[in-house]
C-alpha cells in the first residue's frame, strides 16, 4: 500500500511539475525571445576576423540601388568590402555606386538586371559575376503591393512577386554557393519579413513568399554549415523604404518605421553572429510581445485602412459568360523523357459541386483509381474532374526516367481482366493503390471511360504548368463557360533529396512554377467566377513537410510552407463570399513522389494508400480549413507540431522511430536532415542498382 501511495504521489508531482513548466513557458517565452534576440549578438564570442577576412573581399547585394539593399551596400563598404549591386534601375545604380565609391573608397560594380523577368535574367548576371570572389550575398531584392485581395491583383503582378520574392533568393543562392564551397567560406543573407509569422489577408501572396524565404534559409543553413558557409535570415518589422510609401501609417509613424540606415547598421553588426534575427532590437520587441491574434486583428485593420488610402481607381474584375455544366481536368502530356527527375505525380479525381459541394466532391474523389496513368515510354497525362457545376483539378507533370522506360508494357484496353494486368508492370507503383495503365494514345478514351463508369461529364485540358505564365491563357480559354464549383490545386513536383547547390536551375524553376505559381494563378483565375456565383471551394494540397525547414528538401519544403500561408490568408479573404478554402497537409502518401525510396513507398509505418487518403480528405472538405487529410497523418503531424522529432536507427534495414517532446526547432531541423540523408542514400543505391542491370 505504501509503495502504491508513493508511486501515485510521484505521478501527481510529475504532473504538477509539468504543469508548472508549461505555465512558465507560456508566460515567459516572449521575455526570453526578446532577451535572446536583443542580447545574443553581444554575448557571442568575438569573431576571429573582420567580415572581410572571415567571408571575403566582395559582397553582392540584389536590389542594392535603394532601400535596405542600399543600406547593406553602404554598411559593408564601410567595413572595407567591395560591393556588387544589382537592380533594374540604371540611374539609381549609377548614383548609388558613385556615392559609395566617394564615401568609402572601395570598388563598386553595378549590374543592370530585372529579376521580375524570371529565368532570362540570370545568364547575364552569371556572366557579369565571372572572376569575382564573392564572399557575401545579400538576397534583398523583392516587392510588395498595395494591400488587396488576391483576385484583384493582375496576373502579371503575381508573376512579378513570385519571380522577385521566391525566384531571386533561390537562383542567386544556387549561383554563388558552388564558388563559396570552393573558397571554403562565405555568407548568404536572406531578407524575409516579420509578415511570415502570420498568414495575413490582403497581403496573402507577399506574406507567403516571406514564409518561403525563412524556411529556405533555415534549411540552407543546415546544408551549408559543413562548408563554413553562414546563412542568416533577417526578418524585419517595418523599415522606411519605398515598399511602404503607399501608407502614411507605416511610412511616417515613428512606432512602425525604422530608418534604413539605423536598421542596416544593426543588421550588419549581427551578420555572422546569429542564424535568424529581426535585425533591430525594437523589431524583436514588436514581434515577440504582441499576442498573435492581436497582431492579426491589427494587421487587418491597418491593411484595410491602407487599401482605402492608396486605392484611386477601382480594379477591373474578370467577367465570365453564363456557365454550362461541365467538368474539367488540367494536366501535361510530356513529349520527352527526363532522366534527371524521378517519376513523380499527383492526381485527384473530383465529382461535381451540386448543391452540396462537399458531398458530390466526395462521391468521385473516392474513385481515385480512375487516375490511371503512366504513358509508356513518353510520360503521362493525368487529369480528371467533375460534373455539374464543376470541380477542377490541376494535376502535375509525370516524368518517366529514361533508364526505366523500357519496363513499360502496352496495355490492351479490351482485355476483360484488366485488373490482373497490373502485375505485368514492374515499374508501376504499389499494385494495391493504383489501377492499371490507360491507353496512352488518345486522352479522349480516358474521358469516355470515366464518363461510362461514373456517369459524369469530363473535360480535359493539356497544359504544362512548368512553362510558367505562358500556359494560363490557354487554360482560361478552355474554362470559359464552365461554372467551376471546386478547384483542387494539386499540381506539384518533388525529387530525390539533395542539396540546393546540386539542383539544376531548370529544375528549380520547374518546382517554383509548379508548387508556387500554379496554386497562385489558378486561384486567381477561378475566384472572380466563384464570387459571382456566391459559392465555391478551393483545396490547396500542401504537405506536412512545411512544419520543419528540411535540409536536402529545402526548396520543396519551402514551397509547401508558401502554400499553407497562402491558403490561410485566402480563407480569411474569401469567407465573406461563401467560398471555402482548405489546406490539406498530408504526411507520406504512396504516390510516384515517394517511389524513389523504399522506406517511404513500402514501409507500413509511412505510406498511406492513395484511395484511403483521398476518401478521408474529401470527407473533411467544407468542415475544416486545415487538415492532414487522414487520421494517422493527424497524429504524426500534431506530435510534430508539439516539438515532434524522428530519431532513426537502421538495424538490418528496418526503421525505428522515437519521440521527444519540447525539442527546439534547430534540433528538429538536424534530425530531419539526418532522416532525409538516409532517404537520399536509398535513392542513390537504387540508381546504382538500375545501372548495374
From TrEMBL:
Annotated spans, Disordered: 338-361
CDD domains referenced in this protein's UniProt entry, alphabetically: 17beta-HSD1_like_SDR_c (cd05356)
GO cellular component: mitochondrion
InterPro entries: 17-beta-HSD3-like, NAD(P)-bd_dom_sf, SDR_fam
Localization per Swiss-Prot or TrEMBL: Mitochondrion
Keyword Electron transport: no
Keyword vocabulary terms for this entry: Membrane, Mitochondrion, NADP, Transmembrane, Transmembrane helix
Residues annotated as transmembrane: 630-648
Main location: mitochondrion
Record-linked PANTHER family: INACTIVE HYDROXYSTEROID DEHYDROGENASE-LIKE PROTEIN 1 (PTHR44889:SF1)
Family listed: Belongs to the short-chain dehydrogenases/reductases (SDR) family. 17-beta-HSD 3 subfamily.
Protein's recorded name: Uncharacterized protein
Protein's organism: Glossina palpalis gambiensis
Amino acid at each position: 500500500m505504501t509503495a502504491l501511495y508513493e508511486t501515485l504521489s510521484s505521478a501527481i508531482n510529475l504532473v504538477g511539475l509539468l504543469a508548472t513548466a508549461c505555465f512558465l513557458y507560456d508566460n515567459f517565452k516572449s521575455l526570453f525571445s526578446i532577451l535572446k534576440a536583443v542580447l545574443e549578438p553581444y554575448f557571442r564570442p568575438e569573431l576571429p576576423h573582420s567580415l572581410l577576412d572571415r567571408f571575403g573581399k566582395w559582397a553582392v547585394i540584389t536590389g542594392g540601388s535603394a532601400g535596405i539593399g542600399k543600406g547593406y551596400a553602404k554598411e559593408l563598404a564601410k567595413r572595407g568590402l567591395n560591393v556588387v549591386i544589382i537592380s533594374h534601375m540604371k540611374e539609381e545604380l549609377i548614383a548609388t555606386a558613385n556615392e559609395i565609391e566617394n564615401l568609402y573608397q572601395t570598388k563598386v560594380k553595378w549590374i543592370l538586371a530585372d529579376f521580375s523577368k524570371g529565368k532570362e535574367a540570370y545568364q547575364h548576371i552569371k556572366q557579369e559575376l565571372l572572376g569575382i570572389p564573392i564572399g557575401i550575398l545579400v538576397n534583398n531584392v523583392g516587392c510588395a503591393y498595395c494591400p488587396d485581395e488576391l483576385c484583384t491583383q493582375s496576373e502579371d503582378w503575381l508573376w512579378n512577386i513570385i519571380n522577385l520574392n521566391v525566384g531571386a533568393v533561390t537562383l542567386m543562392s544556387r549561383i554563388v554557393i558552388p564558388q563559396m564551397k570552393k573558397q571554403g567560406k562565405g555568407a548568404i543573407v536572406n531578407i524575409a519579413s516579420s509578415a511570415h509569422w502570420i498568414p495575413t489577408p490582403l497581403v496573402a501572396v507577399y506574406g507567403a513568399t516571406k514564409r518561403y524565404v525563412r524556411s529556405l534559409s533555415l534549411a540552407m543553413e543546415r546544408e551549408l554549415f559543413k562548408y563554413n558557409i553562414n546563412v542568416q535570415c533577417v526578418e524585419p518589422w517595418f523599415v522606411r523604404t519605398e515598399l511602404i510609401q503607399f501608407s502614411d501609417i507605416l511610412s511616417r509613424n515613428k512606432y512602425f518605421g525604422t530608418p534604413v540606415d539605423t536598421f542596416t547598421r544593426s543588421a550588419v553588426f549581427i551578420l555572422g553572429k546569429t542564424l535568424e534575427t529581426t535585425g533591430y532590437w525594437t523589431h524583436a520587441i514588436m514581434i515577440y510581445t504582441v499576442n498573435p491574434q492581436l497582431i492579426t486583428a491589427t494587421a487587418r485593420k491597418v491593411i484595410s485602412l491602407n487599401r482605402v488610402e492608396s486605392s484611386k481607381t477601382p480594379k477591373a474584375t474578370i467577367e465570365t459568360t453564363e456557365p454550362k455544366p461541365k467538368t474539367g481536368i488540367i494536366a501535361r502530356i510530356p513529349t520527352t523523357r527526363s532522366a534527371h527527375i524521378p517519376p513523380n505525380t499527383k492526381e485527384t479525381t473530383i465529382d461535381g459541386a451540386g448543391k452540396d459541394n462537399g458531398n458530390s466532391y466526395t462521391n468521385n474523389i473516392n474513385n481515385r483509381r480512375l487516375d490511371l496513368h503512366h504513358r509508356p515510354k513518353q510520360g503521362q497525362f493525368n487529369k480528371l474532374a467533375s460534373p455539374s457545376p464543376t470541380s477542377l483539378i490541376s494535376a502535375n507533370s509525370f516524368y518517366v526516367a529514361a533508364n526505366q522506360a523500357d519496363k513499360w508494357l502496352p496495355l490492351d484496353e479490351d482485355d476483360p481482366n484488366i485488373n490482373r494486368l497490373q502485375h505485368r508492370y514492374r515499374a508501376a507503383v504499389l499494385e494495391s493503390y493504383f489501377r492499371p495503365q490507360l491507353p496512352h494514345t488518345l486522352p479522349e478514351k480516358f474521358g469516355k471511360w470515366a464518363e461510362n463508369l461514373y456517369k459524369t461529364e469530363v473535360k480535359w485540358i493539356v497544359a504544362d504548368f512548368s512553362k510558367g505564365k505562358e500556359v494560363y491563357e490557354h487554360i482560361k480559354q478552355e474554362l470559359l463557360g464552365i461554372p467551376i464549383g471546386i478547384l483542387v490545386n494539386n499540381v506539384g513536383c518533388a525529387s530525390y533529396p539533395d542539396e540546393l547547390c546540386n539542383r539544376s536551375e531548370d529544375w528549380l524553376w520547374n518546382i517554383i512554377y509548379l508548387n508556387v505559381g500554379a496554386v497562385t494563378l489558378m486561384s486567381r483565375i477561378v475566384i472572380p467566377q466563384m464570387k459571382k456565383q456566391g459559392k465555391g471551394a478551393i483545396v490547396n494540397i500542401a504537405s506536412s513537410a512545411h512544419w520543419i525547414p528540411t535540409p536536402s528538401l529545402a526548396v520543396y519544403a519551402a514551397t509547401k510552407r508558401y502554400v499553407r500561408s497562402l491558403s490561410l490568408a485566402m480563407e480569411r479573404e474569401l469567407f465573406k463570399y461563401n467560398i471555402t478554402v482548405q489546406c490539406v497537409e498530408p504526411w507520406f502518401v504512396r504516390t510516384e513522389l515517394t517511389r524513389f525510396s523504399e522506406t517511404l513507398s513500402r514501409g507500413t509505418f509511412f505510406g498511406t494508400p492513395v484511395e484511403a487518403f483521398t476518401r478521408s480528405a474529401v470527407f473533411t472538405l467544407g468542415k475544416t480549413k486545415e487538415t492532414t487529410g487522414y487520421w494517422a497523418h493527424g497524429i504524426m503531424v500534431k506530435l510534430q507540431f508539439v516539438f515532434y522529432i524522428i530519431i532513426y536507427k537502421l538495424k538490418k534495414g528496418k526503421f525505428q522511430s522515437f519521440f521527444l517532446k519540447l525539442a527546439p526547432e534547430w534540433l528538429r531541423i538536424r534530425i530531419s536532415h539526418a532522416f532525409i540523408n538516409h532517404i537520399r542514400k536509398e535513392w542513390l543505391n537504387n540508381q546504382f542498382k538500375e545501372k548495374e542491370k
